[in-house]
Design brief:
Oligomer: single chain
Keywords: DNA-binding, Transcription, Transcription regulation
Protein name: LacI family DNA-binding transcriptional regulator
Helix content: 40-55%
Shape: elongated
Mean pLDDT: 89
CATH class of the largest domain: Alpha Beta
CATH architecture of the largest domain: 3-Layer(aba) Sandwich
GO molecular function: DNA binding
CATH topology of the largest domain: Rossmann fold
Number of helices: 13
Low-confidence stretches: none
Strand order of the largest sheet: 2-1-3-4-5-11
Pfam family, one: LacI
Length: about 350
């Protein structure tokens, strides 16, 4: 038999305690005008009767839901996990809840997520674009309603929206220059789609470091992959078949780099003696693989905290939406054994 028991209301609590509904309402909000003893009785009675506050209705009356939407392109990533931890730390302190949506690297899914979060009336949005996102039309509804958006990591550089990024060009340049300084002259780049800002800028840094050193560039030395576990295997297999075999590799994802190193070692390749390798992200796996992986430190927690603080400042009216353009988070090259040819 279907349970038709109605929800307990503040009027039920008021009737049981023989006080006004207004007193109950203020008591449930811990209002100082209500005596402490009365507040205690109200809370105890609310628990006894199974009362649940309708937070959504209460917030909507104030035209605010105290929720922030987050769209990420993947969840199986130490970097994204770190970003979410940074966002959660700041938003919790500010009294906001998070609704996290996952695009699975799909533009269509990202569009659906953006629309769904819009209709859930989030107060603001933090988003990182999917690999094949070609336009930002699905975010126009937010701009039209003056709902602030912060894009992070993967962004559309031509957009006027606020962005939190690292200097991907500098990182690509530093990683490649480091390999050149170790004596590498034939360097492979393993990266993802150059349509996304992060990979396009790292590629430009790689190209310019080669050019500055007077080393030739070859399209065959650039592998465009999905930076997955399988990518690491495929990159290693490609390197093993190359003639002449490269003496350096810049792989723009630590997990793919670690899998690539493992596969190369299983095929008799010595690292860094035969090939020096640099990864990207400073994931924990880089300290487990042997030799330890040289990498670019990409502080996800910092990025998450900065994105969340920027959004909350806009929500609080401390900064206007059009006052923020691009915020650049620090990054640095961490040198470990996988690239140190000159010390091997």
């Amino acid at each position: 038999m279907k349970n038709t028991k109605k929800e307990t209301t503040i009027y039920d609590i008021a009737q049981k305690l023989n006080i006004s509904s207004a007193t109950v309402s203020r008591g449930l909000q811990d209002h100082p005008a209500i005596k402490k003893e009365t507040r205690k009785k109200i809370l105890e009675t609310a628990i006894e009767l199974g009362y649940r506050r309708n937070i959504i209705a209460s917030n909507l009356r104030r035209q605010k839901t105290n929720t922030i939407g987050v769209i990420v392109h993947e969840l199986n990533s130490n970097f994204i996990t770190s970003v979410l931890a940074g966002i959660e730390k700041i938003t919790t302190e500010a009294g906001y809840d998070l609704i996290i949506a996952h695009s699975y690297e799909s533009y269509e899914k990202e569009v659906a997520n953006a629309t769904n979060l819009f209709h859930k009336r989030v107060d603001g949005l933090i988003a990182s674009l999917a690999l094949n996102t070609t336009n930002l039309n699905h975010y126009k509804q937010y701009h039209d309603k003056h709902i602030p958006i912060i894009f992070f990591d993967r962004v559309e550089e031509r957009s006027d929206s606020a962005k939190v990024i690292i200097d991907n060009y500098k990182c690509g340049y530093q990683a490649t220059k480091h390999l050149i300084e170790q004596g590498c002259k034939n360097i492979v780049l393993v990266t993802a789609s150059l349509t996304r800002n992060v990979y396009q800028q790292r590629y430009k840094g790689y190209r310019d470091a080669l050019d500055e050193a007077g080393l030739p560039f070859s399209e065959s030395n650039v592998l465009i992959k999905d930076l997955s576990e399988q990518c690491g295997v495929e990159a290693a297999e490609y390197i093993l078949q190359m003639n002449p075999r490269p003496d350096g590799a810049f792989i723009t994802n630590d997990f793919s780099a670690a899998v690539c190193m493992k596969t190369l070692k299983e095929n008799g390749v010595n690292i860094p003696e035969d090939i020096a390798i640099v990864g990207f992200n400073n994931d924990a796996v880089g300290k487990i693989i042997e030799p330890q992986l040289t990498t670019i430190d990409y502080p996800g927690i910092d990025m998450g905290e900065i994105a969340a603080k920027s959004l909350i400042e806009q929500l609080a009216g401390d900064t206007k939406i059009n006052q923020i353009s691009t915020l650049v988070v620090r990054s640095e090259l961490i040198v470990r054994g996988s690239s140190l040819k000159t010390h091997s």
